[in-house]
Amino acid sequence: MCIFCKIIAKEIPSNIVYEDDEVLAILDLAQTTKGHTLVMPKEHYSDITEIPFEKLSHLMDVTRTLAQRINDRLHANGFNILINTKEAAGQTVMHMHVHIIPRYDENDGIKIEFSENKFDMQSILELIKG
User: Fold this and answer.
1) Residue 71 burial by Cβ neighbours in a 10 Å radius (0-12, 13-18, 19+)
2) Has 75 been annotated as catalytic?
3) Buried b / exposed e across 2-35, counting CB within 10 Å, b at 16+?
4) If you compute the radius of gyration of the chain from its CA atoms, what whole number of angstroms results?
5) CB count in 10 Å sphere of residue 36
6) pLDDT, tens digit, 9 for 90 and up, residues 26-56
7) DSSP state of 14
């Protein structure tokens, strides 16, 4: 049983922000920024590629509602919604979850940066479109 499944089963205490029959949202212990929240399905799916669309839809609806609430009530100036999928992308707990990371200003120490790479766009397009 993964750590999130243990939290969902109430075997490990957590700071619950929201709970319904399908979803649990808790404050992340790391608190990257004030209000950093994790939203997860109660049923175990290792990542976004496994969760059924209907459950993902509900999870994202809850995420959107909580993100707006966190933004408003903690007086953030924006937020990042982040899903890490697989170890190469930084997923450390193999239970599907969404990070809500409130942002207060551009100097908060959080860096999400993209760098440009040169690839053959046509061959990539053909591979993806199949």
Assistant:
1) middle
2) no
3) eebbebbeeeeebeebeeeeebbbbbbeeeebeb
4) 17
5) 20
6) 999 999 999 999 999 999 999 999 999 999 9
7) -
Q: How many residues does the chain have?
A: 130
Q: What is the pTM of this model?
A: 0.93
Q: Is 38 helix (H, G, I), strand (E, B) or coil?
A: strand
Query: 25: closest CA among 53, 52, 63?
Result: 63
Structure tokens at 77: 């100036």
Structure tokens at 95: 């239970």
119 vs 127: CA distance, rounded Å: 13
Which is nearest to 80 in space by CA: 114, 47, 55, 53?
Answer: 114
Residues 6+ apart with CB under 8 A from 92: 84
Instruction: Determine which one of 44, 75, 95, 97 is catalytic.
Output: 97
Three-state SS at 100: strand
Task: For 67, list phi and psi in degrees, rounded to 5.
Answer: -60, -45
Tokens in use for 67? 């993100």
How confident is the model over 71-88, as pLDDT tens digits? 999 999 999 999 999 999
